[in-house]
User: Fold this.
Amino acid sequence: MRLTLRTLLAYLDDTLDPAETKLIGQKVTESDKARELIDRIRKVTRRRGIASPPMEGDNPTSDPNTVAEYLDNSLSAEELADLEKLAMESDKHLAEIASAHQILSLALSEPASVPPSAHQRMYRLVKGRESIPFRKPTARMAAGIQEPDPKEKIDSEYDFQLPVMNSEKPRWGILVPLSLILLAVAGFAIYKALPQNEPLSGSGYAVFDSTKSKDLEESPAKINPDVLAKKAETPKKDREPLPTKEPKDSIVVNEIETLPQPREEVVAKPDVEVPAPRPSEIRQVIGGWEGSKNQVLISRSPPLEVVKLPREDIWHRIGKTNAILNTTDSLIAPPGYHPEIKLLSGVHIQLWGNLPELLNLPLLESAITLFFPKEKYDADLSLDSGRIFIRNDKAFGPARIRVRVREPIRELPKDEKLAPGQKPYLFKEEVWDITLLEPKTEICLDRFEGYPPGVSYSRRYNNESPKLEFYCGLVSGKADIRVGFKEFLNLTSPSLMTWDNRGGGLKAPERPNDNLIGIWSKETNVRLPGATESLNALGDLEKRLQGNAEPAVVDVEWASIWKNETEKPSRRIIALFGLESIDAIADMLDALGDESLPLRQAAIVMLRHWSGRAQDHDSQLNEFLINKRRFPETHSEIILELLHTFSEEDARKNSTYEKLFNYLKHERIEIRELAFWHLSRLDPIGLKEIGGFDTAGSENARMATWAKWFNSWRKRFDSKKPKK
Assistant:
């Protein structure tokens, strides 16, 4: 099917078959001219005061029959070309054709609604069986006419839409149930307005912007091992929705702006899923690394031809000797580091790696993949993990950025040949087209991933993907944002838009409260426990990496640091976080069984984060434990079970506590540590009473402390039981 004006009108008015709709939708996505024409059609059909084409003259639209023949696809090729050319050049003729198509689509597709009173008046004009009240006709009614419902009440409301002025009896059979329903709805609304208990864990910005402090107990580790452990106590403010505007058209923008326009988002048919344009596989120079403080940046692609690497998939450090960046490169800022890159187009990108003690959000490494931008775009990238800042550093004019939020569906077969820079996954994509309208405009993009509470691991039935949340914050300046066929124009800072893959979908822009605006700050909060020590460790490791002349020793350097028991615990933890960012499963599992409590607690944070980054990560970890580490299947499943969060209901069950206390006596330190991680958050009172629990201690010491903790919990649990 060709992409013509008539097929676009049929697409907009939803008169095509589903297969044709999908095909046209794909072609529209790939054609900038088609999208511009769609925007223009919507504008001219909504514009007030637009004149109709003159009835006299030689133009084709002077004769209504010509327009009808065009819509019916019965014009000759010459007449068809003349009519479409005229519509492209004149708004009034385009509006005439589009409006006629819309009216005909409604008239032919929607059944006519005949009021029962009018239906019966017509039948009173004839004598015979047809005039019997409420009698259905013997033959079927004509196509497009809706049969009246004999149960409907006949009154003057159907005739002239006026209120009834007769003396009918009250409709108690309708009013009483309706009143009860309204009371129930009002009661539910009041209940929802009352303060509710916060869940045991959260996701996204909800973790930071919370008014409760249920989980504020400090971890026994030297670092805060749970990214969700602390919550801010600033009360929430009501968010003010931002108005949306019609898209600007470069051809008739001056004429349109002088007329009142409806302020609403441009929306295509919501039931049609339009495939996103694929990223380019071209590999060429796209920009460079801007070396400065806190600038550890690693890449998986070979850097320069002069640098010889032992293997192609090795992670190497970007430095002064190889500062050039290419498209299809995978770039990662390890947790805690904030490297900056500058694209040749003038777009500035800062990857923002995070640590739990630096910013209280479920973010660790920051990862992106750069692509060669297509026409009209200054940058094309996918945000694969974490947080980035994007700024318009052009001397003048807007910067157009395409951001891809890709969700890995499944891993590709190992024997399938991959293109340069291609990741071994099939993806679903959400594409955001963001225009930073003026220089120095900056946005903050956050990607949160993880399994919600109550999603347990099952070796056979692990079909549920992690929850993916995407946050787009306009930090400064003005921007236009387009997602699919929804456009939000001329947004001013501060603004926040969100999207998730669990049914919430895309939400309209809001003005965030002051507490949320604070999390976009690039200043490190040194007041959090362990922040100063972590900052010092980050600086030490950065100097060590930059002092090494070889760019391809990042993973080796990190492994040697964290395994060195003479190193400071903070340095060992920072090195371990770096290994997590490059999927070093073996190192994370080794740390989970280490004798150092801070390392074990940090390993839990990393494994939980890594588990939620992709749907198949749990399966990969299960295979690694069984095939590489020779764990029994039952032990592997316990570890994977404990890497997930219990639901609120399960967290209150007696059986959950008993199971965790049994795991606390397990022969494997990995299972004991995970059980302790859960119990220390579910029963902080008992942990405080016993003064701590060392899962790496001797068996006699562990069992003695275990008995005290279990008895303390049992005593408190029994005291809460209702007495018979």
Notes: The mean pLDDT is 75.
